[in-house]
Amino acid sequence: MVMTPGTRVGPYEIRTALSVPGPGELYEARDHDEQRDVAFRVLPVDFAANPDRLTRFTKESQAAAQLVHPNLLTVHDIGTDAGAAYVVSEPMAGRTLRELIEAGPVPAAAVARYAADLASGLAAAHAKGVAHRDLTPAHILVAADGRARIVGLGLAAATQKASALAGGAMPGTLSYLSPEQ
Length: 181
Hints:
Layout: E1 8-9, E2 12-18, E3 25-31, E4 36-42, H1 45-49, H2 51-65, E5 75-81, E6 84-89, E7 95-96, H3 97-103, H4 108-127, E8 140-142, E9 148-150, H5 155-167
Antiparallel strand pairs: 1-2, 2-3, 3-4, 4-6, 5-6, 7-8, 8-9
Helix pairs in contact: 2-5
C-alpha cells in the first residue's frame, strides 16, 4: 500500500516516503496524539491477507514493543488499516551497517563498539524472550553518534518465519543464521 503525504492513519499523518530496506514501504510520519515524529512502515498487502502470518506478526511485534533499550529501535505501535498491517517506531536516523561496509573498510575500534552495542541489545531482547532471527548488517543502524542499534525486532522474526514456514525453508538469511537455527 503506497501512501502519499497528508494521508492519515489514526493519529499518524504521512509526511514523506523513505528509501530504507525492509518489507513494505517506510514513511516519515507525525503522531498527532503524542506530538512526535515517527517512522511508519506499511507491510505488503499480501502479508496482512494471511491470517496466520498477521497473528504471528502481531504477537511478535507486541513482544518487541515491550523492549526499551538504547541499542534497540523502540516500537511505539502496531496495527492494521484498510487491509494493511503497519508498525510505528521511533525515527530511524543513521546508516545501516551494510551501507557502512559497502562504503569501505570499517575501523576496528568502530567494529568493537558496534559489537558491544549489539551484544547489549541482543542480551536485553533475549532476556525478554525475543529473538531477531535475521540479524544482518541491513538490520543494524549506526547513528551519527556511533551507537549501533538493532532494527526490525519482531518484524524480522515474523516475516522470516512466515515465509520460511510457507516455503519449508529455514527462517533468516543463510550466511547470517545463528548456530541454533
